[in-house]
Amino acid sequence: MDRDAAVTMAQRAIKQKTRRLTDAVLRLKAEREQHPATNPSIDELPLIAVTCSTGWECYAIVEELTATRRFRVRALYRTPGTQAAARLDALLAKTEAIHPGLLTLHAGIDMNSEATLTEAFADCAGVVLYVTANTSKAGKITNHGKDPAGGRAAVMRQVLAALGALQANPSVRHVITLVFPTDKVHGIVDAAPEAPWWIHQRLRISDFLRAQGVNVTCIHRPAYYYAMHRVDYNAQTQFRGDTRMSKNMIGENNLPGINDPDFLVNWVDVRDVGKWAGTVFEYPEVFSNEDFSIASCALTGRQLVEIAEKTNRHGTKFKYRQFPQWVMKMIGLFAEEVIYPLRYAQWYNDETNGYDYACNDDLADLARVHPPWTFEKKLESWGITEIRPGKK
């Protein structure tokens, strides 16, 4: 079997599962609407713990779970006093003014400590579990690429600590993990290289926990966020660190990327991750012990440029500018920040694996439950639609 056939078959299976799961959600939603339940008080709502809550997607999960008013949320994070922690502080103040007790913040969480996590998961009905090889200080990325043995150990220390904490808290009935797209070719296609070690390691975590009796829903989401194009510091919404690599901005004749302009990429907005996490907890009978794939769009670099020019109100032209991989390799000798996106991009650009969704039309079933946060919406929120020709 060749690579394209393997990827096509995998994508077809993913699409079929998406249809099955979304059909089940919509059916249950219709049934519940016919027999609406009484609104419980805040202290009666199920409590959800979200680890690494200062990160991109885990913060979004906290925000979206809180917005549903269906859960109490316990946001767990490591370092107080950072820009990311300030977002949580602001969200807490806003939430307390309207729904006191709906959100609580817990700083100083050591993901390597079973005792700390046992206390953090106490009385929770669900946990969003995010583990990483990142052992750096908050706001600086120094992870992933150069030490597989040490990285695997770092990941598994967190997994084992979390497992012990989950087993000590039988109230936790449902865990969500957040992982990259599944490997579709290794072991099937001749000479297909393995995924980078950190992808391979995290793909195994969900099944590892299930084998220990933990009910895990694994949300497969792209590793490419819209925020890789532009980082909005003023709104305190998204950030990747302090280097120039972390601050790429869309401007006239510039829409940056690390993939070939004709290469299809699945993109995700973190708000969509948050919405689907809420749906998983809301419909556990559908998602228990399931793997589930999401994306916000499936587009090439050229298509992103077309959208930027179409949505711009002043006729401004944009151009896709690929950051050369050889330059990233050179930078990677001195700055570990680029190793993760470089090796991830190489894994796909070498036509090894392939994304979960083959085109935007494949996302139609997801949109029946949650209309996605499209690239058009993202450009609008960033103000890219108002860039005038001749201005940066």
The CATH architecture comes to 3-Layer(aba) Sandwich
Percentage of residues in helical conformation: 40-55%
CATH classification, class level: Alpha Beta
Could you tell me the number of beta strands?
A: 12
Give the end-to-end Cα distance, rounded to a whole number of Å. 49 Å
Give start-end ranges of low-pLDDT stretches.
232-241
CATH superfamily label: NAD(P)-binding Rossmann-like Domain
Domain module count: 1
Q: H/E order of the elements?
A: HEHEHEHEHEHEEEEHHEEHEHHHH
Rg, alpha carbons: 21 Å
Average pLDDT across residues? 87
Query: CATH topology, which one?
Result: Rossmann fold
Silhouette:
globular
Biggest beta sheet attributes = 7 strands, parallel
- Largest sheet strand order: 3-2-1-4-5-6-10
**Tally of helical segments:** 13
Brief descriptors of the model:
three-stranded mixed beta sheet, Rossmann fold, 13 helices, 392 residues, alpha/beta, seven-stranded parallel beta sheet
Task: Provide structural commentary.
Strands 3-2-1-4-5-6-10 form a seven-stranded parallel β-sheet, with helices on both faces. A three-stranded mixed β-sheet has the order 7-9-11. The relative contact order is 0.14. It is built from 13 helices and twelve strands. 42% of the residues lie in helices and 12% in strands. It has helices at residues 3-34, 56-68, 83-98, 114-120, 148-168, 197-211, 270-282, 284-287, 301-311, 325-332, 339-349, 364-369, 375-382, and strands at residues 47-50, 72-76, 103-106, 126-129, 174-179, 216-220, 224-225, 255-257, 265-268, 291-293, 297-299, 320-322. With 392 residues, the protein is an alpha/beta fold. The model is unreliable at 232-241 (pLDDT under 50).
